[in-house]
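Priority: low. Protein: Alkaline/neutral invertase. Input follows.
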Amino acid sequence: MYPCWCFGLCLDNFTLHDSFFPFFHSLVSPSLPFSGDIAGDQFNRRRYQFPLVPSDLVLSVKTKEMECPKEPLESQCSLSEMDDFDLTRALDKPRLKIERKRSFDERSMSELSTGYSRHDLDMAHSPGSRSFVDTPLSYVRNSFEPHPMVAEAWEALRRSMVFFRGQPVGTIAAYDHASEEVLNYDQVFVRDFVPSALAFLMNGEPDIVKNFLLKTLQLQGWEKRVDRFKLGEGVMPASFKVLHDPVRKTDTIAADFGESAIGRVAPVDSGFWWIILLRAYTKSTGDLTLSETPECQRGIRLILSLCLSEGFDTFPTLLCADGCSMVDRRMGVYGYPIEIQALFFMALKSALSMLKHDEEGREFIEKIVKRLHALSFHMRNYFWLDFQQLNDIYRYKTEEYSHTAVNKFNVMPDSIPDWVFDFMPLRGGYFVGNVSPARMDFRWFSLGNCIAILSSLATPDQSMAIMDLLEHRWEELVGEMPLKICYPCIESHEWRIVTGCDPKNTRWSYHNGGSWPVLLWMLTAACIKTGRPQIARRAIDLIESRLHRDCWPEYYDGKLGRYVGKQARKYQTWSIAGYLVAKMMLEDPSHIGMISLEEDKQMNPVIKRSASWTC
Ligand code: GLC
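Result:
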């Protein structure tokens, strides 16, 4: 809790820069203490007065895995001690090199991989339980006989490898020789390489990942300019390309930090993915020497200093331009997009587990701890939407002034789109696409919601609610090809205004409601983390019925994701790698420890189970 009038200005657990104090002081009476916790309590009392579900129901897997613990792997030490992190302790806790202690995510979940247990079945039939509601039990059963697609996927993944002076440093975005326009699909994209990296790590091939991390770290050191404007030091490239000179027999690198990208926007997500991948590498190999090098420590700090600097922000979320992440074209995601906020949260937590407690590191650790606290509060409260919350917004008063406002961002109920009233099930919920003054983007974005589960930005109840929504809205969100990048699409006049008439982003295509197979790995990881592997199994079955036959397209079009995307590349590497990662995780759920973070015990969930789930 930050009593704001004592040491700074505070909006919902987020401290503003000191220089704002006199300004705000003149606006708001200092006799009215405005503490985020007080405001938050009001919010929660009003909206979430529901009993907590017993923890054995919420995390049934946790109980089960305790019954069958695996032996620790001696050769590996880990970050798990810090992953189970306690924000208050993180500030002064010495860094421990300890024997790998398996967390919830890492411990054996044999009943997940073998399908279902007695306990799961009991859960499925017990009143009020949320397991398997709409999923046929046939999907719950294990079917892990190697699928012929797996061998082909590995072959295709290896074909996409890029070498720099003989060393593998990444994978190109697409190995599609049939496509006329190469554009930049022959480059190594940072975000695209993540599933490749995870596949290699899971397969015990960490070298390419290490080389990639080091190469991109070097690129971070380049001076970056767009025309006459210099970009921040910490910016990581969106992509890079290795240029081979066959005559001189030399390799050189060309990188793009946004100065060549369509729309000239810097990739905000690259730095976050880099940090997340560094943790995955460390976690998977037990090799602490890479993340502890002064170069990596500096790289982390540079990335963080871009987003932790104080400025005009009134929210702990990160303000972004359109096109700065996976959705790299104008799609109305400017502002505070869920994808970036979830990745930001995950990167902060990952960095916290890797930063050394030396003088420079400590300064950042302090900032991270405060930011995480404020960010999770903000996201869990203001981005969360379920039936009850929707009904509350529908009845919002507007034009409220001062800290007592319920409708803090002055969202106009008339701006709620019609579709969301039908879409919202009684049971389930999700983090909306964007929240900013007088604007709530109600669209569902898959990546942000899956990362929210994996990073534990979502509380356990919220994670379950997201999975409930996926099950209830399977046809809309998954259809015939996992997984819609967002839902629903925008069309007609709205499409013209929001996308600037982008012919690639027409309705139900590409970023505008298209279906992206790469998202399968995130969905699978989220399913495993929430103890719902049957959902992932069902999605994988859909992928296996088509992806290989269609030559691993980048995306699918249509309301159900039935058609290969209008301009989709074939042999898109992250579609291939995403499938492999999903398969390997389902076969050995302990893999998700690389990419999943535990809930902080100290950041007690502010939101309890919503009434909509008990109906
Ligand atoms: C598209 C995607 C982007 C991806 C790139 C390379 O532009 O929107 O997320 O990184 O292709 O695959």
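Residues 173, 189, 191-192, 326, 328 surround alpha-D-glucopyranose (CB under 6 Å). Confidence is low (pLDDT under 50) at residues 1-7, 19-78, 80-143, 604-615.
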